[in-house]
Design goal:
A seven-stranded parallel beta sheet has the order 3-2-1-6-4-7-5, sandwiched between helices. It is globular. The protein has helices spanning about 15-20, 35-45, 65-70, 75, 85-95, 160-175; strands spanning about 25-30, 50-55, 80-85, 100-105, 110, 120-125, 145. The protein has a single domain, classed as SPOUT methyltransferase, trefoil knot domain (Alpha/beta knot, 3-Layer(aba) Sandwich). The chain is built from six helices and seven strands, in the order αβαβααβαββββα. It is of the alpha/beta class.
Length: about 180
């Protein structure tokens, strides 16, 4: 066994990647404070062919030093847009036919591993690292999902949570 060299991985160049059709998955980041988290999420979105990322509220946007450090070029390959108000973005996505799924611990959340995922165009909404999704967003959600945890901590880092969740939806959306 040997590790593959970068040139052996067969990755697309930027133009080829951007021309490919993407999975019907949109990511919405609301009031994410850390550029490192944003960059990491953009990099995950590149890996799993996410259609678009919305950066809302106080979420930093490229070219931000922390984003560039962790995205390693994904801020150029992944389609992204900034909007001040996350509720405006969510209403727009709903009008376009996306199912809105909040990733949040609520009294009605469904565990990700128990959720009935289907091939409907989906927008996953992730909230602030400390406060999560804002209360005014919850009524707009079609449902909320959470990643069940079994240790002593009550939450995962938002970029880790996004990676797990995006992968779960990619597995369903990429095969339909």
């Amino acid at each position: 066994m040997r590790k593959l060299q970068l040139e052996e991985l067969g990755r697309d160049d930027l133009e080829t990647y951007q021309a490919k059709s993407k999975v019907p998955l949109v990511i919405v980041l609301d009031d994410i404070r850390s550029g490192h988290n944003v960059g990491s999420i953009l990099r995950t979105c590149d890996a799993f062919m996410v259609q678009k990322v919305w950066l809302c509220g106080i979420t930093p946007t490229p070219p931000h030093r922390e984003i560039l450090k962790t995205a390693i070029g994904a801020s150029a390959s992944v389609a992204w847009e900034y909007a001040e108000k996350v509720t405006t973005v969510c209403e727009k996505l709903k009008d376009e036919g996306h199912r809105l799924i909040g990733v949040e611990q609520t009294d009605q959340s469904i565990a990700l591993h128990e959720a009935d995922l289907d091939s409907m165009p989906t927008a996953l909404i992730f909230g602030n690292e400390v406060n999560g999704l804002s209360e005014d967003l919850l009524p707009l959600m079609d449902l909320c999902i959470e990643i069940k945890q079994f240790g002593t901590k009550h939450s995962l880092n938002v970029s880790v949570c996004a990676g797990i969740t995006i992968w779960a939806f990619f597995k369903v959306l990429s095969t339909s």
